[in-house]
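User: Hi! I have a protein structure encoded as tokens and I'd like to know what sequence might fold into it. I'm fairly new to this, so please keep things simple.
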């Protein structure tokens, strides 16, 4: 486990169990903010009438008014909903489309085993009701016990999404155990960051339709001020990543029994505690706040999941796009509230609530930069040779369109850390991606790894060869599978590729039966 991950999990365990800590005992590293460089703010605005029906016609630029921090803003550009339709001349898997993009996230991490089966059934029911060619590109992502995996990249082919959904392997969500509370919080928010970074630079609106309970709430009352500030900065950065990527979050929270606390929501009003108006994360840290801040919607305590997915799709697809250039303000890192109103008082605008200003005193976030580097390296044609990698033991599984292989990480340029009991550890992050001919992502996974060896002798460490097992989905249009490994301490990157020809020539075998495993906080157990 990396230093930053260990620190955050320790902080959240304090929050969960109500332990007290003094400033002298807690010395977390600075958690920096991203720097906002764009001076053009995009607002994707859904307009609703008093009955909650989407209004898509009859409005012009003059019907809208924008304020930032109560200061009127001049509308720079205006697009009506009819502009946001799919370009039929583009390939089904091309995300550079006028239509909004849909990211379906299946939340295995925070959902009980039986609940997840119902979630998957509901997503299938929704997809089966769609036309063979979807109205806009969609991708399917699974948040599992250890990583976020894209099992099907952007496609308008319904059959591809159904195939990927049917081959998501079952797993016991063992982290619902309270001891993993902190890991679930971090993994859930990290998933939002990874999706935002994956879509960095992709034009148009993106809608995350998160099916499941989302990350747990963190109660900050038992934490010292400096730790609360670090945690708040973490979620502020995530908000900016989502806002900058033009992503709205829709959470479909099934009304199924769950284990542990989640959103702090009134059953009568189904409202979310959104904190202080000047900082939505000023109080307890609530995953549901991301819904408000990105202009999405929470469907709380509902089991008609397929209908709520369809409603999310409607709200995220029928929208006006407005842009404005904000007035210069202080680079103080504070929240800047945006409000959109309409000339007709019977109409209501739904859009993102604002963004956090850049902070001139904050350094760049090295953790986010690591993810950016890995995503860019995975899609790059440039060889990365600071780490020496090779691939062995490739096996195809045609029944699930997956391949298994082993990445061999050789000794050169490894960064080892001394651990307890005479051991050494090497913290790594591995990214694997299936790419089409244009090097667009079709499937991917990003996994943090810790390699441990029973020696601290430099001569022996210089000869360590580490096998890293990889399984990744290979959708129909895959031409290359590329694997990138980065060491956390030194930042060195190595990359290795499999061509389609090599994949097709590999021996094939049925997909092994999935093993339902559990893990204690101290390590894996069969």
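Assistant: Happy to help. Inverse folding works backwards from shape to sequence: for each of the 526 positions I chose a residue that suits the local structure. Here it is:
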């Amino acid at each position: 486990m990396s230093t930053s991950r260990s620190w955050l999990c320790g902080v959240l365990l304090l929050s969960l169990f109500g332990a007290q800590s003094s400033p002298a005992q807690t010395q977390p590293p600075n958690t920096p903010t991203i720097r906002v460089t764009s001076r053009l703010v995009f607002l994707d605005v859904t307009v609703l009438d008093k009955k909650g029906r989407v209004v898509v016609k009859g409005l012009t630029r003059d019907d809208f008014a924008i304020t930032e921090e109560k200061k009127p803003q001049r509308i720079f550009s205006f697009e009506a909903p009819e502009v946001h339709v799919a370009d039929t001349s583009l390939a089904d898997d091309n995300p550079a489309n006028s239509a909004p993009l849909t990211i379906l996230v299946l939340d295995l991490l925070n959902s009980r085993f039986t609940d997840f089966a119902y979630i998957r059934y509901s997503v299938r029911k929704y997809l089966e009701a769609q036309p063979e060619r979807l109205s806009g590109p969609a991708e399917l992502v699974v948040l599992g016990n250890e990583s976020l995996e894209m099992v099907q990249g952007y496609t308008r082919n319904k059959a591809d999404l159904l195939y990927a959904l049917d081959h998501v392997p079952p797993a016991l969500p063992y982290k619902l155990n309270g001891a993993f509370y902190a890991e679930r919080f971090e993994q859930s928010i990290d998933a939002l960051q990874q999706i935002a970074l994956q879509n960095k630079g992709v034009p148009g609106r993106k809608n995350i339709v998160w099916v499941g309970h989302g990350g747990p709430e963190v109660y900050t009352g038992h934490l010292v001020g400096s730790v609360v500030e670090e945690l708040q900065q973490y979620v502020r950065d995530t908000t900016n990543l989502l806002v900058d990527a033009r992503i709205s979050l829709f959470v479909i929270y099934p009304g199924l029994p769950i284990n542990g606390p989640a959103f702090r929501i009134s059953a009568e009003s189904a409202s979310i505690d959104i904190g202080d108006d000047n900082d939505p994360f000023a109080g307890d840290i609530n995953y549901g706040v991301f819904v408000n801040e990105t202009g999405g919607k929470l469907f709380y305590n509902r089991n008609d999941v397929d209908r709520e997915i369809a409603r999310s799709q409607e709200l995220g697809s029928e929208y006006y796009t407005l842009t404005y250039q904000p007035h210069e303000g202080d680079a103080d890192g504070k929240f800047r509230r945006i409000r959109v109103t309409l000339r007709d008082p019977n109409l209501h605008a739904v859009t993102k609530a604002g963004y956090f200003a850049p902070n001139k005193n904050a350094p760049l976030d090295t953790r986010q930069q690591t993810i950016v580097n890995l995503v860019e390296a995975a899609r790059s044609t440039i060889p990365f040779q600071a780490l020496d990698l090779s691939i062995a033991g490739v096996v195809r599984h045609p029944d699930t369109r997956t391949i298994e292989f082993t990445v061999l990480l050789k000794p050169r340029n490894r960064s080892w850390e001394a651990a307890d009991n005479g051991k050494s550890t090497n913290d790594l992050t591995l990214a694997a991606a299936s790419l089409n001919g244009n090097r667009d992502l079709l499937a991917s996974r990003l996994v943090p790894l810790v390699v441990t060896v029973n020696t601290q002798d430099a001569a022996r460490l210089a000869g360590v060869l580490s096998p890293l097992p990889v399984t990744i989905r290979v959708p129909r249009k895959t031409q290359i599978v590329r694997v990138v490994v980065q060491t956390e301490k030194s930042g060195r990157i190595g990359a290795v590729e499999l061509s389609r020809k090599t994949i097709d020539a590999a021996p094939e075998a049925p997909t092994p039966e999935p093993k339902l495993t559990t893990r204690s906080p101290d390590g894996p157990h069969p």
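A useful reference point when you look it over: DSSP finds ten helices and 24 strands in the chain. Feel free to ask if any position seems puzzling.
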